[in-house]
Design a protein that fits this description.
Low-confidence stretches of chain A: none
Number of helices of chain A: 8
Shape of chain B: globular
Shape of chain A: globular
CATH superfamily of the largest domain in chain B: HUPs
Strand order of the largest sheet of chain A: 9-8-7-10-6-1-4-5-11
Helix content of chain B: 25-40%
Largest sheet of chain B: 7 strands, parallel
Distance between the termini of chain B: 64 Å
CATH class of chain A: Alpha Beta
Order of helices and strands of chain B: EHEHEHEHEEEEEEHEEHEHEHEHEH
Strand content of chain A: 25-35%
Helix content of chain A: 25-40%
Strand order of the largest sheet of chain B: 5-9-4-1-2-3-10
CATH topology of the largest domain in chain B: Rossmann fold
Mean pLDDT of chain A: 90
CATH architecture of chain A: 3-Layer(aba) Sandwich
Structural class of chain A: alpha/beta
CATH architecture of the largest domain in chain B: 3-Layer(aba) Sandwich
Mean pLDDT of chain B: 93
Radius of gyration of chain B: 22 Å
Oligomer: heterodimer
Structural class of chain B: alpha/beta
Number of domains of chain B: 2
């Protein structure tokens, strides 16, 4: 069985410091550290768990992004993925979720998986749209918000889904796409042996800048090559990609400006807190 | 006539979800402004009470499908029906709740119709737009407004070319308002068996464990909320103490929930619950815009923070510069006395 994991490298929006905001209120992406999207990490773990329960399963990882997103592939290889692909092309720039899911689906068709896992959402957009949209484009069944892999065999998968007020166990035929909720088990740590094995894994663009010594080892060991896929390679129609393939347009971006309200600033002294509480109780009456 | 369509969700208790009623209320206003018809979609196993409730919101037409297979929600059957309605009715605007159902269904629809969808909007407005590249002017588009990029910016999104203009909205963001005069909507029934095939049931629900909601933040008059600055799960006990003397509820920011200080169902903000209490006591909350989107309609806000520059202080009526471990016990004492 071929299992595909969709993973995204995201700016760490949970720790955006003041230095990341430019004077004009726009975001300076350049200074933000990038991380493996947390939900996608849970998706990788669920894929590894699935692989351990079925015979002859292999895990492929697909990420779309700039050259530096190759780090996502290496990180996945360290944790147990078998192979990775970096989908990278200027033509993808400015893609909204629809254009992104189109590109991912085109690449997935080339990989031809039986089962796809991806995070429920990415922390830079929080839309949770790319999973269901990719499933639709592949005519895959979709199972969203997976918290636990209950059972899997060659034809079916059983998943516990996390809903607002409880859980639901569903059984689905394959092929299917599963989006994984952040409450699912965290990903296993890197495996030291695999780190040694794959630390020189490189994309062709990365190879241009590396030492001949490492280069030689990559030539000897083809599994260290991370394939880079372009829009042409995945047979993507250009008008479905990037800005032209994105029906949503950003009309404007506003800085977050707080309207200064007339307020009282207090210290933690007894008298000031007493006074405030008296005022509040008067309002409540 | 052109129209706005709202997907109405059915709760575990077989009622129309509050978020759907809120969207009908917002849909009514948008429809009046644009001179459009307001229509609802309702797909479930039994719909009688739900139809009656929809009539409180001035809906013109209800697209109704009643079938044993339509509850509880499964993706494909609902997907097929929504798609059929959209292809036939060609709505200008389509609204879904940003619930586990809406966020499963709306993107699959947007993908098949190749139209734009904006998730978790905090405001919906109508306005014009000019596409600078092509110099094309568009009138009366739906402005879909949401915080983005970890809440550091607010983005206004439009879908100039594709229809419907689709958006999901969290519960509590829009205000629920019934119309003064109940209106009996025209019912258009869908022949379920015509649209669904056996293949649409390839995902089967084996078990469900649904709990009654434990906390109802939306109904609380007083909310004591904690952020990452509270520091630990143990320190959250202080917040529970304060909430109990006030007869209020405890809430938390996403950062506090992610850190494990508090359970997810108490999360307030863009990806949690939106609340409008009489008093909101924010403890150790810096005030990211996603959090403020869920609480800035509170009548009174107190911010307790050691950082005098915390953004939340700017929208607070009282900003107490101090440590919650010092301030909260003093507040409790003050009430008890």
């Amino acid at each position: 069985m071929r299992i595909l994991v969709l993973a995204k490298q995201v700016p760490d929006t949970r720790n955006v410091g003041k230095e990341a905001m430019k004077e004009d209120g726009t975001v300076n992406r350049g200074v933000l550290p990038v991380i493996f999207n947390p939900d996608d990490m849970c998706a990788l773990e669920m894929a590894l768990e699935a692989k351990s329960r079925i015979e002859n399963a292999e895990i492929f990882v697909l990420t779309m992004g700039p050259a530096r997103a190759a780090e996502i592939i290496r990180e996945s290889l360290y944790r147990g993925a078998d192979k990775g692909f970096l989908l990278t092309d200027r033509k993808f720039a400015g893609s909204d979720t629809l254009a992104t899911s189109y590109a991912l689906a085109q690449a997935a068709k080339r990989i031809n998986p039986d089962l796809i896992f991806c995070g429920m959402q990415a922390i830079d957009g929080d839309t949770a749209q790319v999973g269901p949209q990719t499933a639709e484009k592949l005519s895959f069944l979709q199972i969203t918000y997976a918290e636990e892999l209950v059972e899997i065999d060659a034809q079916t998968i059983m998943i516990k889904r996390r809903l607002e007020r409880g859980v639901e166990i569903v059984k689905s035929k394959l092929p299917a796409l599963v989006t994984v909720h952040g409450s699912a088990p965290a990903c296993r740590a890197r495996n030291a042996k695999r780190v040694m094995q794959f630390k020189h894994a490189r994309t062709p663009s990365e190879m241009r800048d590396i030492e001949t010594r490492i280069m030689a080892s990559i030539v000897e060991r083809p599994y260290l090559l991370i394939e880079e896929w372009s829009a042409d390679l995945i047979n993507a129609e250009e008008n479905y990609l990037g800005l032209s393939g994105s029906p949503t347009k950003v009309k404007k971006i506003d800085n977050v400006v707080l309207s200064k309200k007339e307020n009282k600033t207090l210290t933690a002294s007894d008298t000031e807190i007493e006074q405030m509480m008296r005022e509040l109780i008067m309002i409540n009456d | 006539m052109k129209k706005i369509i709202v997907y109405c969700e059915i709760t575990e208790e077989k009622q129309i979800a509050e978020v759907s009623l809120e969207l009908l209320s917002k849909g009514r206003k948008l429809a009046e402004k644009l001179h459009l018809q307001l229509e609802a979609m309702l797909f479930s196993d039994e719909v009688k009470g739900a139809v009656d409730r929809i009539n409180d919101f001035g809906v013109d037409v209800i697209h109704l499908a009643e079938h044993i297979t339509l509850f509880p929600y499964c993706t494909l059957p609902h997907f097929k029906l929504v798609k059929a309605v959209f292809e036939q009715e060609k709505p200008e605007i389509a609204l879904f709740g940003a619930t586990s159902v809406g966020r499963d269904l709306a993107p699959r629809i947007a993908s098949t119709l190749r139209c734009g969808l904006t998730a978790d909007c905090t405001a919906l407005e109508i306005g014009d737009h000019t596409e600078t590249k092509t110099n094309t002017a568009y009138k009366d588009l739906l402005y879909q407004i949401r915080p983005a990029f970890g809440g550091n910016i607010i983005a206004t999104i439009v879908n100039p070319e594709t229809r419907p203009q689709m958006a999901t909205v969290r519960e509590g963001v829009m205000k629920m308002e019934e119309v003064k005069q109940k209106k009996t909507a025209e019912i258009k029934r869908l022949d379920v068996e015509k649209y669904l095939t056996l293949e649409d049931f390839a995902v089967e629900i084996l078990e469900r464990h649904i709990e009654a909601p434990k906390v109802n933040l939306k109904a609380a008059n007083i909310i004591v909320a904690g952020g990452y600055g509270v520091g630990s799960k143990e320190n959250f006990d202080l917040l529970y103490d304060l909430a109990s003397v006030f007869g209020g509820e405890v809430a938390a920011t996403r950062a506090a929930v992610d850190a494990g200080f508090c359970e997810h169902e108490r999360q307030v903000g863009q990806t949690g619950v939106t609340v409008r209490p009489k008093l909101y006591i924010a403890c150790g909350i810096s005030g990211a815009v996603q959090h403020r989107a869920g609480m800035d309609q509170a009548a009174k806000i107190i911010s307790i923070n050691t950082d005098p520059n915390a953004p939340l202080n700017a929208i607070a009526d009282y900003a107490i510069i101090g440590d919650i471990k010092e301030v909260i016990p003093k507040m409790i004492n003050s009430i008890k006395n």
